[in-house]
Design goal:
single chain
Length: about 325
């Protein structure tokens, strides 16, 4: 089995970082997993790893097109080892990637967590759902805190468990404990995920703008590989009248779309907003035109994507083509 292959130890380690994985680390892990499936095509563990990496990519908004790849790899893992925990876990995670099957996937993950209460990998995938689901109300905060504590008892530095616990504490009306949780994770490992969620909490729930600004200044630009992080931080700095700081962060994002469970926004739209706020209308229009091209290319593959159609109409309006914007809007009705 490749599960114990030293060359794949790094890939499993990267997967385990969850909220803290970087874009560069992701590339390394994908390369190792894909190589493993080629060299060991009958080993279920290699396919499980590849599926899980693709699923994490979808959750984080790196590349929504990896959804099909995640499902295919999970199917292969299940065919090779239908009763293995890993294959069952990979299949359940894939189900959580789409709204129509999210509930089923969550139920399967919760059942696996009950069946394997000491398996950190299983528990981590279950608590991760609270971070990536558009409806945090679907989760019992006290129950999630309990799951996170079980992870931290075995893996005291686990960044995903810290971040999920902080969110659950915040949702249960325990703000001081939530901040203390994020700060502990930051103290232990410098967790970028904890920095981001602390920032998110302070800007959306906290009542001290100065503290939120201080938290934003601490965010490393490397977080921009994450679509959610790039969107939240860019909008924050634009709202603060700091387009230069917004531009620095959004330009580091590697893809054409900031795509997650909450929104789909062309990168060029935000870059253009920053340029416009800096008094550079020509540069803004150029970015909006490029973003419009990106929307059209994506719509050629996903003609019914409502979010991209909405973004297209906004971009058409921004570049002054009001008639085209109205026509695009009519498609949404």
């Amino acid at each position: 089995s490749v599960t114990g292959d030293p060359s794949l130890a790094r890939a499993w380690e990267i997967l385990g970082k969850g909220v803290d994985v970087t874009g560069g680390e992701f590339k390394v892990a994908f390369s190792l997993a894909e190589e493993a499936t080629k060299n060991h095509p009958t080993d279920a563990a290699a396919w499980e790893l590849l599926s899980r990496l693709n699923s994490l990519s979808c959750h984080k908004g790196f590349d929504r097109e990896k959804l099909a790849a995640a499902g295919s790899a999970a199917d292969t893992a299940e065919a090779l080892a239908p009763d293995s925990v890993g294959a069952r876990l990979a299949k359940a995670v894939v189900l959580t990637l789409t709204p129509t099957t999210f509930g089923e996937g969550r139920s399967q993950l919760k059942a696996l967590a009950a069946e394997f209460p000491d398996d950190v990998d299983v528990l981590r995938e279950f608590v991760s759902l609270m971070l990536y689901s558009p409806s945090e109300a679907d989760f019992d905060s006290n129950e999630m805190i309990g799951f996170c504590d079980r992870i931290l008892a075995k893996a005291p530095d686990d960044p995903t468990a810290f971040v999920a616990k902080g969110l659950a504490l915040a949702n249960s009306g325990r703000p001081a404990e939530a901040i203390a949780d994020y700060d502990e994770s930051i103290r232990r490992t410098g967790s970028p995920g904890a920095l981001l969620y602390k920032f998110y909490y302070l800007t959306n729930i906290g009542d001290d703008p100065a503290v939120a600004i201080e938290a934003a200044d601490q965010l490393p630009v490397e977080l921009a590989y994450n679509g959610t992080a790039a969107r939240l931080v860019a909008y924050f700095w634009l709202g603060q009248g700091e387009p230069g700081k917004a531009l620095r962060f959004i330009e580091a994002f590697p893809g054409e779309f900031l795509d997650d469970a909450y929104a789909t926004i062309p990168k060029g739209y935000l870059v253009g907003k920053a340029y416009a706020a800096m008094g550079r209308p020509d540069a803004a229009k150029l970015e909006w035109t490029r973003a419009l091209d990106a929307c059209n290319q994506r719509l050629s593959k996903e003609p019914g994507n409502i979010r991209v159609l909405a973004a297209k109409s906004v971009l058409q309006e921004r570049i002054g083509d009001d008639a085209a914007a109205r026509e695009t809007l009519s498609l949404l009705r």
